[in-house]
Please model this.
Amino acid sequence: MDNVSKRSIFFDIAKSTQLNNVSPLAKQIDLNEMRPEGFHQNLETGLNKINDFVSSKSGWISVLSCPICGENSFDKWIEKCGNTIRRCKKCTHGYASRRPKIISEAYENEKQITASFETYQEKRNYRIERFATERVDLLKKFKNKGKLLDFGCGTGWFLEYACNHYNVTGYEPTESLAKFTSDLLKIKIERNLSKFKNNSFDIITAFDVIEHVTEPRKTFQDYFRLLKNDGILLIYTPNANSIGFDYMKEHQNLVIPPLHLHYFNKKSIEELRSTPLDLIYFKTAGFDVGDIYAYERDNGNKEFAQFLYKNYQTLQTFFDHKGSANHLRAIFRKN
Model:
């Protein structure tokens, strides 16, 4: 189905859907502030520079089989910036066919680090008020107190709020980010997982992390080792089985190899749990309509873009409730 045909589906949804409850993440926001003009083009320009930089340094390693289930049969799914994203025929996981020989070369550069700091300062209060509160509220449904590890804590805006509810610490492998967050929040941020004892945490959070790691199975084993019995793991990661991915394909701003090496869906995130971790919660929510709006706006499709802008709440709430939004959140419990 081409995008022209897909647009008619958006019109049908907007006409037929009666909103009783707006999805929490579909509350009316300024789409132009979240996705300013040139957003997708600027992202792709930066992504090309990262790929060129990796190619000029240590280069790439080919990924010969699915990192989740080991299957070596696949379909070619998306091409972007010289990368092929494959879709495993067995578990349907999406994965990049190559990754940097030295992963840090995709991250440890002055522009990336400066951008992270600037984003923290500019969006800090917004991220805490809109996202950190929602995440803690979700955790509270399963654990009211305890020791929490934010795995890949970055600039620490989630920890800044979570410390009011839990005994928190962070893990961040990037040295400059770990120091920045530790100095800012006066919280110990570890760069080495071996510093943590087994069975140490009641809660582990991993927000937009698992899609970056080279070996997700090993990372899940680390989660299992660090969790106490009956501890919970909360994961947020892009959902490849979503309207945003389906509509935008290579233009989807969450398709960013080699930063995102993995593209999960419910089937492949469940396939990942080779350890005794039970999936006890699964839901999707996202910003699909905002992303598509910005893409159509910047490509001159103003009439359709304005329709998306006007009907954002209705459309995004529909996709959130149908499980087809572009981020998934999953909670696992250790037995």
In short: The radius of gyration is 20 Å. The chain has twelve helices and 13 strands. The domain at 3-15+25-334 is CATH 3.40.50.150 (Rossmann fold). The chain has a mean pLDDT of 91.
